[in-house]
Amino acid sequence: MIFSKTLNHWYSNNKRDLPWRQTKDPYRIWLSEIILQQTQVAQGLPYYSKFVHEFPSVFHLAQAEESDVLKLWQGLGYYSRARNLHTTAKYIASELNGVFPTIYKDLLKLKGIGDYTASAIASICFNKVEAVVDGNVYRVLSRYFGIDTPINLSKGAKEFKELAQELIDKKNPADFNQAIMEFGATQCRPQSPDCNICPFNKGCIAFNENKIGELPVKIKSAKAKKKYFNFLVFIDKDAKTILEKRVGKGIWQNLYQFPLIETAKSLEFEDFKLAVKKHSLLKEVSFELSLYNEDVIIHKLSHQHLYTKFWIVKVGQSLPNSIPINKIRTYAVPILIGNFIEHFNFN
């Protein structure tokens, strides 16, 4: 088909030199695809390099402690990806003798692997004719064919998957899949694509009907909830602080944080001080309280916005279950906590 020939020709002349394009190793392809979910290449590349260096095979990753995997992942967000990565590595190493499934339906059974990742591994590593559909592919196809079906509805997902499957180069599915993703990432960009030099501009409906900014269509999700987080940064007389492990289900599961007081709204100093006095660590203990950030830090997640304050709590005695401040950077923490640790001058 002309579409795939044009796309492959563009790819041969414009593809970026990326390390996961130099291999067919399913472990490395899988690793790169998981890292690049919700992550731009520029941000994900150093993480990929760190993981390959630290865990050169699925067996190395399987043998690692989860805390070490989460620490290496720190800053990428969506930490369930890292937990699923580790779980699947252990399964492949122990149950499959380190051998990845070669077909789509078996890859799909692995934890953390959905349609997109299964299609990518099957096509790139094993030359299976399985079309990938990600944000870049949605954008290319919706613009070129003028499709306004919302991409975040099941109807849209099915329509675009079927179209991509029709278009894929049956003889070279690996290059086709990488080409269409690359084309969406670097040429048919979300904002200000350079349509004048696009090899598809003559047949592109969005370009010819001036609908580039309208496609793809996505139904707006519910408004993000506001939450008010107050982290207590304890500093005791022994230059120790306290980190707590989050054990409940959630995006920060098994990561560490400073003791947290969540409030219904942002509290002024005196009101919050009353709340702090009720904390189990401070009952009948004298302390000095100060607010680190006068301006609230707004940490935006996909479904909620965290309005965050860091409160410094200096205590003139030893605290139970505390850790030396100079060891604090060895713990896996959310990026919100990590940024504070990097900027605060612990003395």
Mean pLDDT reading: 94
Q: Write down the domain tally.
A: 2
Uncertain stretches of 5 or more adjacent residues: none
The main sheet comes to: 5 strands, mixed
CATH class of the largest domain: Mainly Alpha
Q: Which percent range describes the beta-strand content?
A: 5-15%
H/E element sequence:
HHHHHHHHHHHHEEEEEHEEEEH
* Whole-angstrom Rg: 24 Å
Our count of helices gives 14
End-to-end distance: 66 Å
CATH architecture of the largest domain: Orthogonal Bundle
User: CATH H-level name of the largest domain... which superfamily?
Assistant: Hypothetical protein, domain 2
Keywords: 4Fe-4S, DNA damage, DNA repair, Glycosidase, Hydrolase, Iron, Iron-sulfur, Metal-binding
Catalytic activity: Hydrolyzes free adenine bases from 7,8-dihydro-8-oxoguanine:adenine mismatched double-stranded DNA, leaving an apurinic site
Function: Adenine glycosylase active on G-A mispairs. MutY also corrects error-prone DNA synthesis past GO lesions which are due to the oxidatively damaged form of guanine: 7,8-dihydro-8-oxoguanine (8-oxo-dGTP).
Pfam families: HhH-GPD, NUDIX_4
